[in-house]
Amino acid sequence: MDGKTLARIGAVVFVALAVTATAIDMNRSDAGPETTTKKPPSIVRHDPLDDQLARCSQAGEVGASDPQCLKAWADNRRRFLGTAPAPDPFSTDRPEVR
């Protein structure tokens, strides 16, 4: 047998062993650690602003002129950017200017 043939046979045997080892490893089920730590359930509070934003998002072009949608989007921007709310120009609770 010449060296080329022997090298080819060796390569085929090596590839066959690698494929077999991979197949065995993929089919083996690891038991894993016996003690698993469970995460406590997260507390999710329902935010009514999310419902309002979803309604306005589904409204399409009408939402762009709806005052409730405009207020909800402004509140969402303030919440996201962390800015203080601006005074409402249509509010009747303004102090009188003398």
TrEMBL record:
Signal peptide: 1-23
InterPro entries: TrbK
Keyword terms of this UniProt record: Signal
Protein name listed in UniProt: Conjugal transfer protein TrbK
Species, as recorded: Sphingobium fluviale
